Amino acid sequence: MEVVKRISPRAEQLISEYGLGYIRVEYSENVLKRGLIFIALLPVGFVMLALSLPTLLAPALTDGDWWQRMGNLSYFLMGGSCLSLLGIPGICMLAITLWKGEKRLYLGDKGFVSARRQIETVVRWETVAEIHRHILFMKGKSEKV
Predict the structure, then answer these.
(1) CA angle, corner 106, sides to 141 and 135, nearest 5?
(2) pLDDT tens for each residue of 30-39
């Protein structure tokens, strides 16, 4: 989950509706954005495969340089196959995100609200028994909690 730069009106409405004090931060899952990036790889892979297709279908009656041309196009075949296969998880991620909805977390003074589509789960700090903190350090980015 990533921190949203601007607090949405829905976050303010939910936090005030459930009496959780002042809103501190809003987190978003951003699975939709990642799925769209993966889907963008799909047409690139198809173009690379389409460029190598005429050589694959060329008759073997040519003067023997067919194998040499195949060696040069092996990068297109491998790259196109890999990019096309990477697009398939993107389609799955996009379909699941559109079906379930993106998860959002609104953190207030007296508790938090976890929302997905129209289902909100409200938790007050008095009812929380323990909190786990997992920090993931990534190259070139600040800490994610």
Answers:
(1) 35
(2) 777 777 777 7
Using DSSP, state whether 4 is helix, strand or coil: coil
Residues contacting residue 134 through CB under 8 Å, at least 6 positions apart: 145
Q: Residues near 99 by Cβ (< 8 Å), separated by ≥ 6?
A: none
- Per residue in 55-91, pLDDT tens? 666 655 455 566 666 666 777 778 888 888 888 877 8
Q: Does 88 lie in the same domain as 52?
A: yes
Decide: helix, strand or coil at residue 103.
Answer: strand
> Domain tally for the chain?
2
Within this chain, do residues 46 and 106 fall inside the same structural domain, yes or no?
Answer: no
Residue 48: how many other CB atoms lie within 10 Å: 21
For the whole prediction, is pTM greater than 0.70? no
